[in-house]
Design brief:
Elements: H1 13-19, H2 21-33, H3 36-39, H4 48-55, H5 59-71, E1 75-78, E2 81-84, H6 86-91, H7 101-115, H8 118-124, H9 144-168, E3 176-180, H10 186-194, E4 199-204, H11 209-218, E5 225-229, E6 244-248, H12 256-269, E7 275-280, H13 291-303, H14 311-320, E8 324-330, E9 338-343
Parallel strand pairs: 3-4, 3-6, 4-5, 6-7
Antiparallel strand pairs: 1-2, 7-9, 8-9
Helix pairs in contact: 2-7, 4-5, 7-9, 9-10
Bound molecules: S-adenosylmethionine (SAM).
Length: 345
C-alpha cells in the first residue's frame, strides 16, 4: 500500500519496451538497407541535411532516422554531426571482418514476416517461415538472393560465438575437429585463428560445403579447414579420425528423437577420450529464460521442429548416448550463451 492507503500502481513501462521492440529492429534494418553506416564509415560524419541530400530523401525523416539510431547506441554526435559508434563501425559496415548485417537482413527480409504469423505457429505447432507440405526443408527452393542472405546471416551470427567459444572451452588436446552441421565454417575460422595447431572439417550437406570452402579461402585458413559432404540423419556414420566434434546451433533445429540420434552418431565417430562440444543459446533448467535463448526457441517454432534446450536436457541425452563427464561453461555471444562438453569414455 502507498502511504495514503491507495494500492501501488504498477508501471507499464516494461510493456511499452516489449511491445515496441520491432520499432528498434526496423530502425536498424532500414538504416542498414539505406547504407547509413557505410556513408558514415569515413569518420567525417553527417548532418541531417547532408544525409537527406545523399539519400535523396526529405530532411524530416533523415533527422528522425539519425536521432533514432543515436538513441539506440548506433550513432553518436560529434561537433554537431552524427558519426558511427564503435559498435556500428565494426559490425554494421559491409566488408568488415565481424560484419553483423547479414543477420539483421535475414531478420528483416525473412523472419519479420514469419514472426507476423507467430499465432498460427503457436496454434498449429508448425513453422511459418516455409511450407512443410510443399518444401523438403526450410531452404528448399528458396530464392538464391535470399539464400545468400541466410548464409551471410549464419556467418555473421557465429563469428563472435566462435571467438568466445575458443576461450571458454579447453581445446588444448584437440588437433582435428569435426564441425557437424558446420555451415559456412564461421566458428571453425575463429577457432583456428585462436588455436594455431588446430585443423577442422566442416561436415554439412553437399550444397553447403562450397560456401565453407569459399569462406575459409577468404579468411586465409583453407589449408586448415576442409569439408566433408554428407547428411547426419541419412548417413549411417559420421567421418571418423577427429578427436573432437562440435555442434554449433545445430541441435536446436531438431526434435528430441533426432537430437538423440545425432548425439549417438557423434559418440560413435569419436575415439576414447574424444570431446563433444554443444554450443547453443541454452534455456535455463527452470525454463524461465534467459530471454535471448527463450526467444530463439520461439524462433525455432517459426523455422523448425526443434527448440532451445536446457543443460539438464543435454546432459541426460549425452549420458544416454554414452558420454561421460558433462560440463557446462557460460559465455556471452549473440548466437550462443554457453556450451556443454562431455567425453567418450
Ligand atoms: C543453424 S545452421 C548452423 C551452422 C553452423 N554450425 C554455425 O554455427 O554457424 C544449421 C546447419 O545444419 C546443417 N544441416 C541441416 N541438416 C543437415 C543434415 N541432415 N546433415 C548435415 N548438415 C545439416 C545446415 O545446412 C546448416 O549449415
Amino acid at each position: 500500500m502507498n502511504g495514503d492507503g491507495s494500492a501501488p500502481v504498477i508501471s507499464p513501462v516494461p510493456l511499452m519496451e516489449i511491445s515496441t521492440g520491432f520499432w528498434a529492429s526496423k530502425t536498424l534494418a532500414v538504416s542498414l538497407e539505406l547504407g547509413l553506416f557505410t556513408l558514415l564509415s569515413d569518420g567525417r560524419g553527417l548532418t541531417a541535411a547532408e544525409l537527406a541530400e545523399a539519400l535523396r530523401i526529405s530532411e524530416r525523416p533523415a533527422e528522425m532516422l539519425l536521432t533514432g539510431c543515436a538513441s539506440l547506441g548506433l550513432l553518436q554526435r560529434r561537433d554537431g554531426r552524427y558519426v558511427n559508434t564503435p559498435l556500428a563501425d565494426e559490425c554494421l559496415v559491409p566488408g568488415r571482418p565481424y560484419y553483423f548485417g547479414g543477420w539483421v537482413q535475414m531478420l528483416d527480409q525473412r523472419l519479420y514476416r514469419a514472426w507476423g504469423e507467430l499465432e498460427r505457429a503457436v496454434r498449429t505447432n508448425s513453422p511459418t517461415s516455409w511450407h512443410p507440405g510443399a518444401q523438403a526443408h526450410l531452404l528448399d527452393g528458396i530464392d538464391p538472393e535470399l539464400l545468400d542472405v541466410f548464409w551471410d546471416a549464419m556467418h555473421s551470427l557465429s563469428a563472435y560465438s566462435g571467438r568466445r567459444l575458443a576461450h571458454a572451452v579447453d581445446l588444448s588436446g584437440v588437433r582435428w575437429l569435426l564441425d557437424v552441421g558446420g555451415g559456412s565454417g564461421s566458428v571453425d575460422i575463429e577457432l583456428c585463428r585462436c588455436h594455431p595447431d588446430l585443423r577442422a572439417t566442416v561436415f554439412d550437406l553437399p550444397e553447403v560445403c562450397p560456401i565453407a570452402e569459399a569462406k575459409a579461402r577468404l579468411a586465409g585458413v583453407a589449408d586448415r579447414i576442409g569439408t566433408a559432404p554428407g547428411d547426419f540423419l541419412a548417413d549411417a556414420a559420421l567421418p571418423a579420425g577427429h578427436d573432437a566434434v562440435l555442434l554449433s546451433m545445430v541441435l536446436h533445429d531438431w526434435d528430441e528423437d533426432r537430437v538423440r540420434e545425432i548425439l549417438r552418431k557423434c559418440h560413435d565417430a569419436l575415439p576414447p577420450d574424444g570431446l563433444i562440444i554443444i554450443s547453443e543459446l541454452l534455456v535455463n533448467d527452470e525454463k524461465t529464460g534467459p530471454a535471448p535463448a527463450a526467444l530463439m526457441s520461439l524462433n525455432m517454432l517459426i523455422e523448425t521442429s526443434g527448440r532451445n534446450y536446457t543443460p539438464a536436457e543435454y546432459t541426460a541425452w549425452l549420458s544416454a548416448a554414452g558420454f561421460s563427464d558433462p560440463r557446462v561453461v557460460w559465455f556471452d555471444s549473440p548466437g550462443a550463451n554457453g556450451a556443454i562438453t562431455a567425453r567418450r569414455p
